[in-house]
């Protein structure tokens, strides 16, 4: 069961390769006006490791990306926003194609660099249209980050993605049922159960380094 918490990782890889980090609940590494810098002693080589906001931000990004490293083939990034996941997948994982879907027209500007790639396709659409939008498109994996809580009908969504995806689903997000912006109150455990009922092999991991975070991994 999810343990709601406010912790976010603040870390950096030491030159010896050891991961050096703290969990703290004051600052987000993506907040540009944050001026936090900490120095910790690496518990492998005893070197001092200074972690400023920039290195903490890079470390946080890479920590998220580490959950998506097995993605390949044709990938659909739902609620792709400015392309945080799509950009990583395209630039690092050599997929055949990444389809980004988002309802917000403002994404187009942020996705400018990706739009120049033949291997990227942006679709300004609503998640509830997945079934029709991608009915003739082969999709191996569906990925998303921080989107599931904005979906109004989770049951329809799970039916649609189960019929759209050949191989796997990778969902990262947060679960804070008291948050005013959420559109459903379905917990990660309940989502996992619904996925299992549709025949997926599911694993849920609760993330102590990502504010009230979870990661759902599904394979056929
Ligand atoms: C918190 S942002 C996450 C963006 C991106 N996944 C990332 O990791 O940076 C949530 C995104 O989901 C999109 N979104 C929310 N509800 C949606 C819906 N019903 N259909 C399509 N996109 C939706 C929003 O427009 C927004 O870009």
**CATH-level-4 superfamily name of the largest domain:** Vaccinia Virus protein VP39
- Compute the gyration radius: what is it? 18 Å
Strand content: 25-35%
Reported for the largest beta sheet, the result is: 7 strands, mixed
| Secondary structure category | alpha/beta
Number of domains: 2
Shape: globular
What compounds are bound to the protein?
A: S-adenosylmethionine
List the helices and strands and how they pair.
Layout: E1 8-13, E2 19-24, E3 38-41, E4 48-51, H1 53-65, E5 74-78, H2 84-92, E6 97-102, H3 107-110, H4 112-115, E7 120-124, H5 130-133, E8 139-145, H6 154-164, E9 165-174, H7 188-197, E10 201-207, E11 213-219
Parallel strand pairs: 5-6, 5-8, 6-7, 8-9
Antiparallel strand pairs: 1-2, 3-4, 9-11, 10-11
Bound molecules: S-adenosylmethionine.
S-adenosylmethionine binds next to helix 2 and strand 8.
Explain what the structure shows.
The chain is built from seven helices and eleven strands. By secondary structure, it is of the alpha/beta class. It has two domains: 56 residues, no CATH class; 151 residues, Vaccinia Virus protein VP39 (Rossmann fold), CATH 3.40.50. The chain has a seven-stranded mixed sheet with strand order 7-6-5-8-9-11-10, with helices on both faces. A two-stranded antiparallel ribbon has the order 1-2. Strands 3-4 form a two-stranded antiparallel sheet. Strand 1 and strand 2 form a beta hairpin. The protein starts with 7 loop residues before the first strand and ends with a strand. The structure holds S-adenosylmethionine.
């Amino acid at each position: 069961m999810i343990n709601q918490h406010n912790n976010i990782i603040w870390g950096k890889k030491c030159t010896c390769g050891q991961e050096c980090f703290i969990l703290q609940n004051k600052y987000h590494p993506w907040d540009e006006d944050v001026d936090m810098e900490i120095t910790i002693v690496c518990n492998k080589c005893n070197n001092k490791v200074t972690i400023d906001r920039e290195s903490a931000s890079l470390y946080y990004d890479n920590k998220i990306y580490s959950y998506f490293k097995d993605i390949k083939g044709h990938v659909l990034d739902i609620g792709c926003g400015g392309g945080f996941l799509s950009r990583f997948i395209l630039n690092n994982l050599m997929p055949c194609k990444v389809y980004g879907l988002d309802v917000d027209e403002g994404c187009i500007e942020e996705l400018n660099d990706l739009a120049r790639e033949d291997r990227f396709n942006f679709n300004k659409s609503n998640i509830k249209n997945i079934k029709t939008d991608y009915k003739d498109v082969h999709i191996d994996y569906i990925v998303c980050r921080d989107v599931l809580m904005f979906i109004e009908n989770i049951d329809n969504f799970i039916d649609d993605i189960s019929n759209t995806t050949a191989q796997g689903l990778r969902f990262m997000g947060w679960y804070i049922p008291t948050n005013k912006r959420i559109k459903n109150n379905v917990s990660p455990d309940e989502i996992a159960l619904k996925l299992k009922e549709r025949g997926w092999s599911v694993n849920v991991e609760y993330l102590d380094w990502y504010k009230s975070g979870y990661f759902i991994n599904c394979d056929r």
